[in-house]
C-alpha cells in the first residue's frame, strides 16, 4: 500500500483512497486509472453527464466489479467486497435515482436500517431533519413525490451512521429551500468530522459544502481544485463543465 | 354548460385528488392559453406531479373537471389524451430499458402515427428512424443511438426522457423536472431547446432549477400543500416574500 | 342446519391444513417473490419423513419436529446451491425449483412407493368430541385447527413486529440497495427459505396425519397453496388465512352442492378473485 | 420481471439476414429429409418428429409471450388442448368435415385465448403466471368431468387423420410435412410480428406500460392482441396434437403436459423462437428412450432441466453464443487487454458471486 | 439378454415376420410412475410366475421351439404415455405381441391403437372398461372380466343375503367406477333395491369428511367406488367420522393395497362386502395356492398378490399357452396364435377361463368380506362365487339413482 501522509487532524482510520481504478462495461472502458485520496472532509465531484461519476461511486459501494485498481478505507481494501461489507466498514450510499423500495413504507425504510436510539442518527432525528417524511410516514415508498423520495434516500443512508457518506446527486428534485437546509445540515456534520463524497450537478450546493472539488472528464480526474476556484470562475466552468 | 373554447390548451377546474387521507391536490384551477409557457414551482410534495398525472389521465381526479383544447377529457384514458396532442415526461424516467435508444424513440414516434398498431416490419420505415435520429441529435444523444437504455448514465436517460415527449409532436408539452440530473452545460442547452420550441406548442414545466423555470416561463404558478398559492410573472415571483420564505430559502439566493 | 355447521367446520379444519402449507409459501413466494414450484414436494417429503420417524419412535411430535428440521435444511441447501445466484432472475429460479420438484417427486416415488400411507397418531386422540350444534366431531381435526392458528399468529408477529419483514421486502425490491444499508441479503433469504421449507415439512406431517401421503399429493398441495397465497394476497399472513378459509369452505360447500365440479370451482375462485382484484384480497397494489 | 434469458438487443433494420439464417436453413433441410433418414419411420416420425414439432409450436407461443410481452403463460398447452378438443368435438360429435373441424378448433383455441386475455391482460408478472396456471386447472378439471361435451376421462375419439384434398394426412409422411409446414409458418408469423412496429410496441409495453399509454398506445389492446396471437399459434399446435393422437382426453391438458411445454421452452432456450424445436426433440427423446437407461425418467428429465438452467440459461439455442463468450473471456485473460464481451446479465444488478470472483484481488 | 432392446438389430415389426418364425417378442406395458407406479413390479411378478413354468424368467423363455423375448415399457397411467409407449414397442422395438396395460384410461386408448395395427396381437393386462372388447378390434383379447362383471353376484347378495334395501353410492368420477357401480347397481336394482343418492367425487379428493356427512340416515349401506389412495383416505376418515353404516366395496376399494396401509381403518372396513376377480384370503385351491406361493418368490412382491398381479398372470399365462399351442407360428397375420387365444379354456388359479365371440373372457367372480384376522390385521374372507360370468353389452356412463333410470 502506498504510504499516506496524514493531514493535520486526520487519523489513519478515516483515510479513503482510490488508486488506479479501472472499470469497463463490456468493451467500454469507462473509468481510466482514477486515483484520489480524501480524509475527514467534504469532497465534491463534478462532471458532465455520462463522464463516469456514478460508475466510480458504484465501484466504491461494491455494486459493480472493477477490472483493476484499489479502494481502501481506513487502510482496509474494500474493492471487491459486497455492498453490505462496504456498508459495515462505515460507508453509506445515497444512490442516483434514489432507488427507494416500492414495497416499504417510509417508516419501514427507516426502521429496517436498525439504528439505535443512542446513535447520532436515529429514526426520530431523521424525522426532525425532514419533517415532510414524518407527515408521510405510512406512505408507500413508490408513492412519494420525487423530492420526498430523495429525502428518504438521504435519511436511509444517514441511519447507517457512516464515517463516510457517498452521495450521488442528492439535490436532484429537491426544492431550493430544502437543498439550502441540507447544505446547512451537512456543514454542521462536517464540523463534527463527517466525511462526505458528494457528486453534484448543482454547482452552488457543491461549492457551498465542499472545500475541494474533483472534476471528472471522460473517466479521468481532470482537475482537483479548491471550491472557490470554481465557484466564481466562468473560464474553469466552461473548460471542464462545458458551461457557456 | 361550458362552450368549447378553442383558445385554451388546458383548463383545470376545481380539481382535487386524495390519496387515502392525504389531500394531495385541493381545488386547483388553471387556465392556459394556446402557446403559453407556464412554469409550476413549489415545495416537495406540493402536488405538482400529481397535477400532471391528473391532466395526463394516469389516475382520475377525486373531483373537478379537466378540458384539453376545449374538450372535456375528465374521464378519458391516457392514450386518448395523448392522441389529442398531449405529451409528458416523467419525473422518474420511464423508458424501455431493454431496447436501444433509437428503438425507444422509434416507438415514441409511432404513438402519434398509427392507431391500431402496424404490422409493417419496423425496419421498413426508414423515414421514422431518420426522424428519430434527428430528435436524438436535438437532445444531445446522437452518439448513443445503438446503446441499450439500461446501459445509459442517469443524465443520458433524462435526455432520452425528453426526446420521448418531443417525439409526439404535441400541442401541449408537459415536462416534469426535465433538468433533473442534467449537468450545468446540459441545462444551458435545455433552456435553448425549450426556447426553440415552436410558438404554437403550449408548454407546462415543473422545475426546481429557477434558472430554467423563470427563464422560459411567461407565467409562473406556485404550489404549496396541494394548493395553488400564487400565480404571476417571473419577476413577480422573484419578488414575492412568500415564495422566498416557503420555497426558495435564503442562502442560495444567487441561484435565483 | 346441523349439516351446514358440520360442513363449515370441515371447511375450516381443511383450511387449517391449507394454511399451514401456504404459510411457508407466503414467506418464500409471497414475501421473497421466489416462485417455488417445489413447495408441494417439501410438503410430501415432510410427510414421509414424519411417517418414518413416527413409525420408528411412535412419537408424533418428534416426527413433526424432525420433518420440519430436515425439510428446512434441505430447503436451505437448495437455496444456497441452486437459487441464491439467480435471486433476481425470478423466472429462472421458478424453473430450477420445478426441476427440483420433478426429481424430488420421482425419488420419493422410488423410495416410498406409490401406495398411500398415513402418519399414525396416538389412539387416545382418535376420538370425537362434542361440538355444540354439530355433534360428535373428530378431535384431531380441531387440534389441527388450533395448531394452525398458533402458527399463524407467531408468524405474523415475526413478520410484522420485527425488522425482518421489511428487510425481506426491501431485498426483493432491490437487493443491492438493501445490501448497501448493511444487510446480508444472502443470509436473510437463506433463512426465509429454511423457515418456509420447514413449515412445508411440518405441514406435511400434519396433513399426512389427516389425509394419505402418496405421489401426486405434492402437485395438489402446491396448487392449493398457490391458490391460497394468490387469493389472499402475496406476503400477507392474514391474507393467507383468509385465502385458506375461502378455498377450504368453497371446496367443501361445492362438494355438497356439485361434487363433480369441486375442483373447477376452487380454481375458478382464484380466477374470479384475480380478475376483480389482481393483487389478491389482502395484497398491496404495487 | 418475468423474463428468463437476457434478451435481444435491437432487432430492427437487420431484417431477415442474420448469421443464424444459415444454421436455420441447414436445420430446415435436415427436418425435411428426416423421414427418409430414419430406419423406422413409423416410430420416428410420430414419436419424435411430429411430437417435437407440436411441442415446439406450443412452446413457441410461450416463448413469444415471454420474450416480447414479458408474460409467462402456463396456459399455452391448455389453449392447444382447447383447440384439439374443438377439432375432436367437430369431428366426432358434430360430424363436420376435416377442414371445417380444423377451422373450428383454431377458432375455439384463439377465442379462448382472447377471453383469457381479457381477464389476464391487466394482471402482471407472477399474477399472470398464476392466473394462467389456474385457468389451465379449471379447464383440465372441467374436461375431466364434463361427460356431455368432453366425454370426461374417456375423451373424444376416434379422430382419424383426414384427407385434406391437397394433402392426405392419413399418410404419415404427409402428416409430418403438414406439421413441419405448420411449424415453419408459425415461426415466420412470430418473427414477422416481432419485427413489426407492433412487435416493437409490445416490447415497449413489456418495459414500461405507463410510458406507452403516455405515448398514446392502448396498452390493453396490444396485450390482448399479443395473447390472442400467441393463442392462435398454440391452437395450430393443438390441431397437430389431436391428429397425432387420434383422440383427445384430459391428459392432453393436465399439469404434466403444461410443465412439458415449459421444459421444452427452457431446454430450447426461452428467449429463442427456434430453440423450442431443439427442446421438443430433447424431451421426446427422453420420453421415448430414457427408460432404456434408467427407471427414473423424471429424475433424468429434472437433472437435464436443472443443468440447462444452471449452465446454459439461454438453452440449447444459446450455447453457441456462450461458447463464444467463454472464448473471449479466455482470450481477454491471456492478453489482459480490455477486450470484453458485453456482460451477460443485466449489468445493473450483478450477483454477489460475480462481484467477488471478478473483483480485483490484491 | 433382450435382443429387442438394441433398436438396430431387432426383428422387423410382427406382421412382416417370416412364417414359422420361432422367435416372438412380447412388449409389456405397465405403470411405472404416478399413483399406480407399483403396476410394473406386479406385472413383472406375474410374468415371472408364468415364465417360470417354462423355465424362463421375466426377460424370456423357450416355449417349445419358440424363443419368447420380453420388452418392458413403463407408463404413468395416462392415455398419452400409453399411446407413445405402445407405438414405440410396436414400431421401434418391433414386438409381435403387445401385453398390457394397467389402467382403464390407457386400455381404451390401446384398443383404439390396436385397431390401427391389425398385424399385432394385443392381450390386455388389467384394464377393465366394459367398452374395450366391444370396439370390434379383432386382434384384441381380454382374459379377465370387465369392471361391471367384477360386481357380478354382489347386487343380489347385498339385497337378498344382507337385506340392504337402500344403498348410497360414493364413487370416483371416471369411467372405471361408472362401469363398476353400473354393474353393481343394475343387479341390485333389478333385485328390488333402491339407490338413495349418488356422490360422484373428483379423483384425488382427500377430504371425505363432508362427503361422509352427506350419507342419509336411513340408508342401509354405502357403496364405495373408490380406488387406491382415495379408498384409503375414505376409510381412514370413515373411522374418525364414526361412520356406522356397512360398506359395499367397489372392486378395488378394499384391495390388499388399501388394507395393508398403516392407518387404522378396521372399525370402518370390517364387514365390507365386495366383488371382484380376486378371491378372499381364506380361498384355497391347489392352483391358487401354487400361484400365491410362486408369486411370493418374485422380487418386490407384496405379501399377497394384488388385483393387478392376478389379472396380469391370468392374462399372460393363456398367451404363453397359445404360443405353445400355435408353435410360435405368426404367419398369416398371426392367425394360428389368435385362434389358439380364442380357444383358451384354462383352469386358472381363479377358476375356468373361456372366451366369448368378442375375445372377452367368461370368468368366475368372487364375493368377499373384510374380516379381522389373527392379531387384528385386516383380511378378506370368501363368501360366495359366481361362475361363468359373461360380459353385458352396456357401457355405463355417470348415472343418478339406478343406472339407466
Ligand atoms: N399514488 C400515491 N399514493 C399516495 N400518495 C401519493 C401518491 N402520489 C403522490 N402522493 C403524495 O402526494 C403528495 C404530492 O405528490 P407530488 O408527486 O404531486 O409532489 P410534487 O409536487 O411533484 O413534489 P416533488 O417536487 O417532490 O416532485 C406527496 O406528499 C406524495 O407523497
Ligand atoms: N451498465 C452499463 N453498461 C454499459 N455502459 C454503461 C453502463 N452504465 C453506464 N454506462 C456508460 O458509462 C458512461 C458513464 O456512466 P455514469 O453513469 O458513470 O455517468 P455519470 O458521470 O454518472 O453521468 P450522469 O451525470 O448522467 O449521472 C456513460 O457513457 C454510460 O453510457
Ligand atoms: Mg451519474
Ligand atoms: Mg414531482
Could you state the CATH homologous superfamily of the largest domain in chain B?
P-loop containing nucleotide triphosphate hydrolases
How many helices of chain C does DSSP assign? 11
Write the H/E string of chain B, N to C: EEEHEEHEHHHEHEHEEHH
Q: Helix- and strand-based class of chain B? A: alpha/beta
What is the end-to-end distance of chain B? 43 Å
The CATH topology of the largest domain in chain B is Rossmann fold
Uncertain segments of chain C are none
Instruction: Report the principal-axis shape of chain C.
Output: globular
Q: For the largest interface in this structure, which chains are involved and how many residues does each contribute?
A: C-D, 47 and 48 residues
Identify the CATH architecture of the largest domain in chain B. 3-Layer(aba) Sandwich
Summarize the structure.
Chain C contains 11 helices and 2 strands. In chain C, 74% of the residues lie in helices and 3% in strands. Chain E is α/β, with parallel strands linked by helices and 405 residues long.
Draw up the topology in text.
The complex is a heteropentamer of chains A (244), B (256), C (286), D (362) and E (405).
Chain A: E1 16-25, E2 28-38, E3 42-46, H1 53-60, E4 68-73, E5 76-77, H2 83-88, E6 91-94, H3 106-112, H4 123-129, H5 131-135, H6 146-158, E7 164-168, H7 176-191, E8 195-199, H8 203-209, E9 212-217, E10 220-226, H9 227-231, H10 234-241
Parallel strand pairs in A: 3-8, 3-9, 6-7, 7-8
Antiparallel strand pairs in A: 1-2, 1-4, 4-5, 9-10
Chain C: H1 2-31, H2 39-57, H3 60-83, H4 90-112, E1 128-131, E2 135-138, H5 139-161, H6 164-173, H7 175-179, H8 185-210, H9 217-232, H10 237-257, H11 262-276
Helix pairs in contact in C: 1-5, 1-8, 1-9, 1-10, 2-3, 2-4, 2-8, 2-9, 3-8, 6-8, 9-10, 9-11, 10-11
Chain E: E1 23-31, H1 39-52, E2 60-63, E3 66-75, H2 79-93, E4 97-99, H3 104-116, E5 121-123, E6 140-141, H4 154-161, E7 166-172, H5 175-190, E8 194-201, H6 209-214, E9 221-225, H7 228-240, E10 247-249, H8 256-259, H9 266-269, E11 273-276, H10 286-296, H11 307-325, H12 331-342, E12 345-348, E13 351-355, E14 361-372, E15 378-389
Parallel strand pairs in E: 1-3, 1-4, 4-5, 5-6, 7-8, 7-9, 9-10, 10-11
Antiparallel strand pairs in E: 2-3, 11-14, 12-13, 13-14, 14-15
Bound molecules: adenosine-5'-triphosphate (2 copies) and magnesium ion (2 copies).
One adenosine-5'-triphosphate sits between chains A (25-26, 28, 30, 47, 49-55, 96) and B (151-156, 181, 183).
Amino acid at each position: 500500500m502506498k504510504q499516506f501522509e496524514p493531514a493535520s487532524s486526520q487519523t489513519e482510520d478515516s483515510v479513503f483512497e482510490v488508486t488506479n481504478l479501472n472499470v469497463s462495461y463490456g468493451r467500454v472502458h469507462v473509468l481510466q486509472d482514477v486515483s484520489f485520496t480524501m480524509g475527514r472532509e467534504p469532497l465534491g465531484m463534478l462532471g458532465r453527464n455520462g463522464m463516469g461519476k456514478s460508475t466510480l461511486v458504484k465501484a466504491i459501494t461494491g455494486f459493480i466489479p472493477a477490472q483493476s485498481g484499489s479502494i481502501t478505507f481506513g487502510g482496509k481494501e474494500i474493492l471487491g467486497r459486497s455492498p453490505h461489507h462496504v456498508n459495515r466498514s462505515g460507508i453509506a450510499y445515497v444512490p442516483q435515482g434514489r432507488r427507494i423500495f416500492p414495497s416499504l413504507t417510509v417508516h419501514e425504510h427507516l426502521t429496517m436500517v436498525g439504528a439505535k436510539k443512542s446513535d447520532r442518527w436515529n429514526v426520530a432525528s431523521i424525522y426532525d431533519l425532514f419533517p415532510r417524511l414524518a407527515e408521510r410516514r405510512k406512505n408507500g415508498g413508490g408513492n412519494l413525490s420525487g423530492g420526498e423520495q430523495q429525502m428518504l434516500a438521504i435519511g436511509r443512508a444517514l441511519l447507517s451512521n457512516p464515517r463516510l457518506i457517498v452521495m450521488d446527486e442528492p439535490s436532484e428534485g429537491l426544492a431550493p429551500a430544502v437543498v439550502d437546509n441540507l447544505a446547512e445540515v451537512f456543514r454542521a456534520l462536517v464540523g463534527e468530522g463527517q466525511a462526505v463524497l458528494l457528486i453534484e450537478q448543482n454547482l452552488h450546493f457543491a461549492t457551498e459544502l465542499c472545500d475541494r472539488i474533483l472534476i471528472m472528464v471522460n473517466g479521468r480526474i481532470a482537475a482537483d481544485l479548491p471550491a472557490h476556484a470554481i465557484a466564481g470562475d466562468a473560464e474553469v466552468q466552461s473548460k471542464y463543465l462545458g458551461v457557456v | 354548460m361550458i362552450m368549447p373554447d378553442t383558445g385554451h390548451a388546458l383548463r383545470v377546474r376545481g380539481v382535487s385528488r386524495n390519496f387515502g387521507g392525504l389531500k394531495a391536490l385541493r381545488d386547483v384551477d388553471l387556465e392556459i392559453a394556446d402557446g403559453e409557457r407556464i412554469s409550476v414551482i413549489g415545495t416537495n410534495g406540493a402536488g405538482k406531479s400529481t397535477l400532471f398525472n391528473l391532466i395526463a389521465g394516469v389516475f382520475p381526479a377525486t373531483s373537478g373537471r379537466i378540458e384539453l383544447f376545449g374538450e372535456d377529457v375528465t374521464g378519458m384514458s391516457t392514450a386518448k389524451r395523448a392522441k389529442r396532442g398531449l405529451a409528458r415526461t416523467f419525473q422518474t424516467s420511464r423508458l424501455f430499458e431493454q431496447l436501444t435508444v433509437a428503438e425507444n424513440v422509434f416507438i415514441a414516434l409511432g404513438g402519434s402515427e398509427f392507431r391500431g398498431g402496424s404490422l409493417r416490419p419496423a425496419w421498413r420505415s426508414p423515414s421514422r428512424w431518420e426522424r428519430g435520429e434527428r430528435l436524438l441529435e436535438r437532445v444531445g444523444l446522437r452518439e448513443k443511438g445503438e446503446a441499450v437504455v439500461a446501459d445509459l448514465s442517469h443524465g443520458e436517460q433524462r435526455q432520452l426522457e425528453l426526446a420521448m415527449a418531443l417525439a409526439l409532436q404535441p400541442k401541449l408539452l408537459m415536462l416534469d423536472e426535465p433538468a433533473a440530473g442534467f449537468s450545468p452545460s446540459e441545462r444551458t442547452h435545455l433552456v435553448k431547446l425549450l426556447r426553440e420550441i415552436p410558438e404554437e406548442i403550449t408548454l407546462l414545466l415543473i422545475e426546481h432549477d429557477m434558472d430554467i423555470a423563470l427563464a422560459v416561463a411567461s407565467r409562473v404558478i406556485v404550489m404549496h400543500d396541494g394548493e395553488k398559492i400564487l400565480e404571476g410573472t417571473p419577476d413577480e415571483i422573484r419578488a414575492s416574500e412568500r415564495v422566498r420564505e416557503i420555497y426558495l430559502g435564503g442562502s442560495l439566493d444567487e441561484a435565483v | 342446519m346441523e349439516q351446514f355447521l358440520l360442513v363449515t367446520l370441515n371447511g375450516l379444519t381443511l383450511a387449517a391444513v391449507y394454511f399451514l402449507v401456504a404459510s411457508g409459501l407466503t414467506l418464500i413466494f409471497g414475501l421473497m417473490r421466489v416462485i417455488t414450484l417445489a413447495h408441494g414436494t417439501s410438503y410430501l417429503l415432510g410427510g414421509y419423513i414424519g411417517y418414518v420417524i413416527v413409525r420408528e419412535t411412535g412419537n408424533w411430535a418428534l416426527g413433526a419436529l424432525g420433518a420440519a428440521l430436515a425439510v428446512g435444511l434441505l430447503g436451505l441447501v437448495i437455496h444456497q446451491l441452486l437459487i441464491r445466484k439467480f435471486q433476481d432472475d425470478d423466472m429462472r429460479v421458478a424453473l430450477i425449483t420445478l426441476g427440483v420438484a420433478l426429481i424430488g417427486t420421482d425419488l420419493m416415488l422410488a423410495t416410498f412407493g406409490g401406495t398411500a400411507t398415513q402418519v399414525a397418531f396416538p389412539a387416545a386422540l382418535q376420538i370425537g368430541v362434542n361440538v355444540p350444534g354439530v355433534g360428535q366431531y373428530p378431535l384431531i381435526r380441531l387440534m389441527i385447527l388450533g395448531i394452525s392458528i398458533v402458527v399463524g399468529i407467531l408468524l405474523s408477529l415475526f413478520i410484522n413486529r420485527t425488522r425482518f419483514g421489511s428487510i425481506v421486502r426491501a431485498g426483493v425490491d432491490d437487493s443491492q440497495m438493501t445490501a448497501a444499508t448493511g444487510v446480508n441479503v444472502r443470509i436473510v433469504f437463506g433463512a426465509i427459505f429454511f423457515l418456509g421449507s420447514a413449515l412445508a415439512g411440518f405441514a406435511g406431517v400434519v396433513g399426512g396425519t389427516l389425509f394419505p401421503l402418496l405421489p401426486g399429493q405434492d402437485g395438489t398441495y402446491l396448487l392449493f397453496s398457490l391458490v391460497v397465497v394468490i387469493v389472499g394476497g402475496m406476503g400477507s399472513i392474514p391474507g393467507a388465512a383468509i385465502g385458506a378459509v375461502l378455498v377450504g369452505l368453497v371446496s367443501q360447500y361445492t362438494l355438497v352442492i356439485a361434487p363433480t365440479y369441486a375442483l373447477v370451482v376452487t380454481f375458478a375462485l382464484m380466477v374470479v378473485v384475480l380478475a376483480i382484484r389482481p393483487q389478491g384480497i389482502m395484497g398491496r397494489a404495487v | 420481471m418475468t423474463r428468463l434469458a437476457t434478451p435481444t438487443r435491437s432487432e430492427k433494420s437487420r431484417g431477415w439476414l442474420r448469421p443464424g439464417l444459415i444454421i436455420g436453413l441447414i436445420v430446415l433441410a435436415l427436418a425435411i429429409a428426416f423421414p427418409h433418414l430414419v430406419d423406422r419411420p413409423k416410430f420416428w416420425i410420430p414419436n419424435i418428429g411430429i411430437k417435437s414439432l407440436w411441442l415446439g409450436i406450443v412452446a413457441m407461443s410461450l416463448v413469444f409471450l415471454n420474450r416480447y410481452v414479458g408474460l409467462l403463460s402456463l396456459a399455452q398447452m391448455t389453449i392447444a388442448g382447447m383447440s384439439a378438443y374443438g377439432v375432436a368435438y367437430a369431428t366426432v360429435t358434430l360430424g363436420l368435415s376435416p377442414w371445417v373441424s380444423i377451422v373450428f378448433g383454431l377458432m375455439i383455441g384463439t377465442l379462448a385465448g382472447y377471453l383469457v386475455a381479457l381477464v389476464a391482460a391487466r394482471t402482471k408478472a407472477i399474477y399472470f403466471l398464476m392466473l394462467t396456471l389456474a385457468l389451465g386447472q379449471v379447464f383440465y378439471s372441467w374436461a375431466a368431468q364434463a361427460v356431455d361435451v368432453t366425454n370426461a376421462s374417456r375423451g373424444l375419439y376416434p379422430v382419424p387423420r383426414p384427407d385434406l384434398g391437397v394433402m392426405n394426412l392419413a399418410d404419415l409422411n404427409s402428416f409430418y410435412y403438414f406439421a413441419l409446414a405448420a411449424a415453419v409458418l408459425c415461426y415466420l408469423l412470430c418473427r414477422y410480428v416481432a419485427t413489426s412496429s407492433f412487435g416493437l410496441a409490445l416490447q415497449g409495453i413489456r418495459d414500461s406500460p405507463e410510458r406507452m399509454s403516455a405515448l398514446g398506445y392502448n396498452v390493453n389492446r396490444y396485450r390482448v392482441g399479443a395473447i390472442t396471437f400467441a393463442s392462435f399459434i398454440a391452437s395450430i399446435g393443438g390441431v397437430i396434437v389431436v391428429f397425432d393422437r387420434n383422440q383427445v382426453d384430459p391428459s392432453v391438458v393436465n399439469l404434466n403436459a403444461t410443465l412439458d411445454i415449459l421444459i421444452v421452452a427452457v431446454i430450447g432456450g426461452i428467449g429463442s423462437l427456434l430453440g423450442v424445436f431443439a427442446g421438443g426433440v430433447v424431451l421426446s427423446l427422453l420420453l421415448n428412450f430414457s427408460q432404456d437407461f434408467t427407471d427414473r425418467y423424471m429424475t433424468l428429465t429434472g437433472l437435464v432441466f436443472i443443468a440447462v438452467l444452471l449452465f446454459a440459461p439461454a438453452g440449447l439455442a444459446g450455447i453457441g453464443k456462450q461458447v463464444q463468450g467463454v472464448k473471449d473471456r479466455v482470450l481477454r485473460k491471456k492478453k489482459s487487454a480490455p477486450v470484453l464481451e458485453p456482460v451477460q446479465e443485466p449489468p445493473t444488478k450483478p450477483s454477489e458471486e460475480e462481484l467477488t470472483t471478478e473483483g480485483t484481488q490484491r | 439378454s433382450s435382443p429387442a432392446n438394441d433398436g438396430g438389430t431387432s426383428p422387423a415389426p410382427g406382421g412382416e415376420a417370416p412364417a414359422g418364425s420361432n422367435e416372438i417378442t412380447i412388449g409389456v406395458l405397465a405403470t411405472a410412475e404416478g399413483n399406480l407406479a407399483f403396476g410394473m413390479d406386479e406385472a413383472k411378478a406375474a410374468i415371472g410366475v408364468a415364465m417360470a413354468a417354462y423355465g424362463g424368467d421375466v426377460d424370456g423363455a423357450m416355449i417349445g421351439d419358440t424363443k419368447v423375448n420380453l420388452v418392458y415399457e413403463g407408463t404413468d397411467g395416462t392415455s398419452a404415455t400409453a399411446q407413445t409407449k405402445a407405438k414405440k414397442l410396436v414400431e421401434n422395438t418391433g414386438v409381435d405381441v403387445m401385453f398390457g396395460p394397467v389402467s382403464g384410461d390407457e386400455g381404451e386408448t390401446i384398443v383404439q391403437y390396436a385397431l390401427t395395427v391389425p398385424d399385432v396381437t394385443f392381450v390386455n393386462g388389467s384394464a377393465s372398461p366394459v367398452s374395450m372388447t366391444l370396439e370390434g378390434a379383432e386382434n384384441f383379447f381380454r382374459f379377465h372380466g370387465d369392471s361391471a362383471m367384477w360386481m357380478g353376484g354382489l347386487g343380489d347378495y347385498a339385497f337378498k343375503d344382507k337385506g340392504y334395501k337402500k344403498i348410497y353410492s360414493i364413487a370416483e368420477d371416471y369411467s372405471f367406477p361408472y362401469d363398476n357401480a353400473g354393474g353393481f347397481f343394475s343387479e341390485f336394482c333389478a333385485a328390488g333395491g333402491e339407490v338413495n343418492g349418488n356422490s360422484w367425487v373428483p379423483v384425488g379428493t382427500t377430504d371425505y369428511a363432508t362427503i361422509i356427512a352427506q350419507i342419509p340416515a336411513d340408508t342401509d349401506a354405502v357403496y364405495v367406488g373408490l380406488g387406491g389412495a382415495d379408498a384409503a383416505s375414505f376409510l381412514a376418515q370413515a373411522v374418525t367420522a364414526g361412520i356406522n353404516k356397512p360398506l359395499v366395496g367397489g372392486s378395488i376399494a378394499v384391495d390388499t393395497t388399501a388394507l395393508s396401509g398403516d392407518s387404522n381403518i378396521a372399525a370402518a372396513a370390517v364387514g365390507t362386502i365386495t366383488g371382484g376377480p380376486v378371491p378372499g384370503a381364506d380361498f384355497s385351491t391347489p392352483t391358487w395356492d401354487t400361484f400365491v406361493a410362486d408369486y411370493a418368490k418374485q422380487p418386490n412382491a407384496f405379501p399377497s398378490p394384488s388385483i393387478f398381479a392376478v389379472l396380469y398372470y391370468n392374462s399372460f399365462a393363456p398367451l404363453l399357452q397359445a404360443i405353445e399351442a400355435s408353435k410360435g407360428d405368426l404367419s398369416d397375420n398371426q392367425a394360428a396364435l389368435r385362434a389358439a387365444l380364442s380357444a383358451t379354456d384354462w383352469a386358472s388359479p381363479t377358476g375356468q377361463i373361456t372366451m366369448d365371440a368378442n375375445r372377452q373372457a367368461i370368468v368366475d367372480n368372487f364375493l368377499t368380506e373384510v374380516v379381522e384376522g389373527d392379531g387384528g390385521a385386516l383380511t378378506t374372507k370368501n363368501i360366495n362365487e359366481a361362475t361363468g360370468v359373461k360380459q353385458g353389452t352396456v357401457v355405463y356412463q355417470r348415472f343418478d339413482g339406478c343406472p339407466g333410470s
